[in-house]
Amino acid sequence: MAGARPAAGEQASPPRKIPRLIPPDGPLSLDEHLARYGAIPFSAALPSRDGGIPALIAAVERSGLTGRGGAGFPAGRKMRAVAQAGGHAGPFGSAVGTVVLANGAESEPASGKDRLLLARAPHLVLDGIALAAEAVGATRAYLCVHSGGGAPEPQLREAITLRERAGLNRVPIQVIDVPGGYVASQETAVISFLNGGPALPAFVPPRPSRKGAHRRPTLVQNVETLAHVALIARYGAAWFREMGTAQAAGTALVTVGGAIRRPGTYEIALGTPVGDLVQRAGGPAEPVQAILAGGYFGGWLPFPAAQRLALSDDGLRPAGAALGPGVLVLLPESACGLAETARVTSYLASQSAGQCGPCSNGLPALADAIAHIAYGQPAGEALRWTEHLMALVTGRGACHLPDGTAAIVASALRVFASDLRRHAEHGPCARIRRAPVVPAPADPHEAS
Amino acid sequence: MTSPAAAAHVSAIVVNSATPLWYTTRATGLVALVLLTISMVLGVLSSVRYQRPGLPRFVTSGLHRNSSLLALAFTGAHIVTTLADPFAHIRVQDVVIPFISSYRPLWLGLGTIAFEVMLALTITSLVRSRVSYRIWHLVHWTSYLCWPVAVLHGLGTGSDTPVRWVLLLTLACIALVTAVTGWRLAYGWPSHPVVRVAGALMIVLVLIAGGAWLAAGPLQPGWARRSGTPPSLLNTGAGGTAGTANIPPGAGALRAAARAGSAP
Amino acid sequence: MNRGQASTPGQTGTPGQTGTRGQTPGQTPGPAPRQRRGERPILQVNPIACEAHGLCIELLPEMISADPWGYPIIAPGPVPDELLSLAQRAVTACPTLALLLTRPQ
After folding, report:
1. What is the Cα–Cα distance from C29 to A305, expressed in whole angstroms?
2. How many domains does chain B have?
3. What is the pTM of this model?
4. Residue C10 pLDDT more than 60?
């Protein structure tokens, strides 16, 4: 599959199968990278001849690429918004240089894909940054990582310097070390940190695409999203849509953990059945009762019923979960789903930025409530109080931490309803004493 | 027509202008001080979130706003009547530039400062929605500067300081603001303990220093001269008996007494 | 349970308007909407600026109630015409300027 260096002007042959993003023999040097994928097609990122939107943005829109950081917002639409905002965000409606922010901070404890991508395919990400910068009229770019989480900072800086010399960056790219903490990698939190403030979410409006880093329109994209952009620029939107479904196009990186034989990060075509991925990862290490899909803002799916579900946001939402940033954790039958959820909720409550009353008050209360359900003998009102708390916190914070926490608790109460009944009648089960499966860092400020 | 004792009383004070304007100036000044005190108290009650069934938060907040505006209005009247009254020759410049007046420059200047801080407080509050909250909050802290300066101005410039009821009223205002501010500190605002302790210390120091100054200054005879009243407005020399001097009735009596004024 | 727009902290694509998303313990405000429905302003609170002073709850109990910790719960939906001036007064009264009356985007 790795082609010879293409002749001048010839496009490298596009990968027809998985993997697209992570070369099995990676990381590649800059020359190898350019040989494998072809030169970076900057011309596509320039404004079209009549001064309109660059062809690249239109291609990304047609490709149906959505953000791979968890929110799933259409990438092309975001790029267009920033490009347009930059055209008149300056004084008296003049044009102003925008900013590209590549988010690789990955504070989700169960996710490891961004780390892997940056370690094994940094040039693809950097291609994406440069292309996006060109397309949205950026004058600088930031690559945000969390070194405490194992991001390969020195190698990244080296790669950037190398590319700078070869003139491949187009704008200065700076690597920024973002502090740990679940909410620190949120879009507005990273921007706040860049602007010299704390890494805490900010109130929106104004949205980053209108006013972000240094008060300029800022394109915030997950590093995996930008890697896909780098490939779409070379091989086109139609190629991108060759894999995946009509609603969820392309491929995505998914981290599989928990009771699985071969835990790790896998690239899948969106829409792949859950069961296929579980098999690829070696199958369950022990009998599995449920899967946590979508990370801590996701939801539980009963196993083995979940196996036929399609791995995509629209495939999992009707079942009460999501793909999110591509996280699956298999929960063995030897563990207690309620106890695991209680641990996750307690972790999320500790991660509150403390800025919004409903969250900083409500999440600890919710954590106590679900802990009582998991470790105590909950009466009927315990359940009612928990549901009341979930309704109280949803939608009342500046970021989605309270919403996501309420969501995972709600899905646990639904999927582990039989456990709930058993706890109510007999008290906590013996399984709560099993070693924890879902990672929840003991030190709240260190993501694993 | 007046006994030497009465004349001596008179020479202790400089109430030589008998125009209604001068009386109005003193009256509006006093009222403004009281209103400013009320405003300070209500402001502190707002920040410690004081609430009773009969006193909801929005009432405290609204009363604070209204009393502040009234205080400003009365201060405005106080300034206008002072300007209009030819007695002390206070000019427009003296209203905006402190310490350049011919009449008790230091103490009048404090009034200028207090007035300008009041203006800043009022203006930032009126355009609150357009100014960032942090800026508004920062400026609003200067109210803790404005009020004591206004009190000092009243005590230093005011000719009524030795008058018993005026003194008691001023002391009552001081006691009230000290009490609520102390309560606020004890309540836990601001949250930083060092700041609170520093604030408490400052209050104690200011009270002690202020009390000492009051006893040695305005309440002593000859304050009119020592505070910088132009000699032309004084009786010949200063002095006379100290203590509470009552304001003699009638202009004629005053002028006559002043002319007849004796004593070193 | 259908969760709509949830996201992980990695990205927030459309952060949405705080006061109107999600479920708030149900109160339906006011009578039937008028013709110019799309232009009616909505009330929302900036949860970061809000410090639970509670003046808005005192001034507009028709649309704002208190949660167990004193923070405002705003009834969803646009502000009815007859409450508009009261809503404006509540917005002005907020000590931290956290209450906002905005036109929906």
Report:
1. 42
2. 1
3. 0.83
4. no
* Nearest chain C CA: its distance from A181 CA (Å): 10
Q: Which of A414-423, B154-163, B172-181, C28-37 has the lowest mean pLDDT?
A: C28-37
What is the tally of structural domains in chain A?
A: 3
CATH code of A300's domain: 3.10.20.600
Domain of residue C76, CATH code: 3.30.70.20
Q: In terms of Cα–Cα distance, which of A73, A76, A79 is closest to A100? A: A79
List, for residues A220-262, the tens digit of each pLDDT value. Answer: 999 999 999 999 999 999 999 999 999 999 999 999 999 999 9
C66 Cα to chain A: minimum distance (Å): 10
Chain C hits for B56, CB-CB cut-off 8 Å, are: 58
The answer to whether the CB of C10 falls within 8 A of the CB of A325 is yes
Look at residue B110 and tell me if it is in a domain.
yes
> Cβ of C50 under 8 Å from any chain A Cβ?
yes
Which pLDDT score is estimated for B4? 57
Reported as type and span, the H/E element at residue C95 is: none
pLDDT score at A442:
62
Q: Which residues in chain C (74-103) have CB-CB distances under 8 A to chain B? A: 92-93, 95-97
Check CB contact under 8 Å for A414 and C67.
no
CB–CB of A203 and C49 under 8 A? yes
Quote the percentage of chain A above a pLDDT of 70: 95
What percent of chain C is modeled with pLDDT above 90?
57
How many residue pairs bridge chain B and chain C with CB atoms within 8 Å of each other?
Answer: 22
| Contacts of B232 by beta carbon, 8 Å cutoff, 6+ apart | none
- Single out the residue in A332, A351, A372 at which a domain terminates: A332
In a domain, B21, yes or no: yes
* Chain C neighbors of B57, CB-CB under 8 A: 53-55, 58
Measure in Å the smallest separation between the Cα of C100 and chain A Cα atoms.
11
CA distance B62 to A177: 47
Looking at the structure of chain C, the number of domains it has is 1
The mean pLDDT of C28-49, rounded to a whole number, is 68
ipTM of model over 0.90: no
Instruction: Report yes or no on A22 lying in a domain.
Output: no
Burial B186-215 (b: 16+ CB within 10 A, else e): eeebeeeeeebeebeeebeeeeeebeeebe
Is A212 touching C (CB cutoff 8 A)?
no
Residues A365, A319, single domain; the answer is no
Segments forming the whole domain that contains residue A384: 337-433
Chains touching C (at least 3 CB pairs under 8 A) are A, B
Residue closest to A128 by CA, chosen among A117, A315, A71: A117
CA B174 to chain centre: 11
- Tell me, yes or no, whether B162 lies in a domain: yes
At A180, list the tokens: 């740990």
Q: For the residues B15-28, what does the mean pLDDT come to?
A: 77
Tell me, yes or no, whether C50 lies in a domain: yes
- The 10 Å Cβ neighbour count of residue B135 is 11
pLDDT for C12: 40
The average pLDDT across C8-25 equals: 38
Domain that holds residue C80: 37-102
User: Which residues 66-105 in chain C show a CB within 8 A of chain A?
Assistant: 67-71, 73
Q: How far is A370 from chain C (nearest CA, A)?
A: 18
DSSP annotation of B9 reads H
Flag whether residue A89 sits within 8 Å of chain C, measured between CB atoms. Answer: no
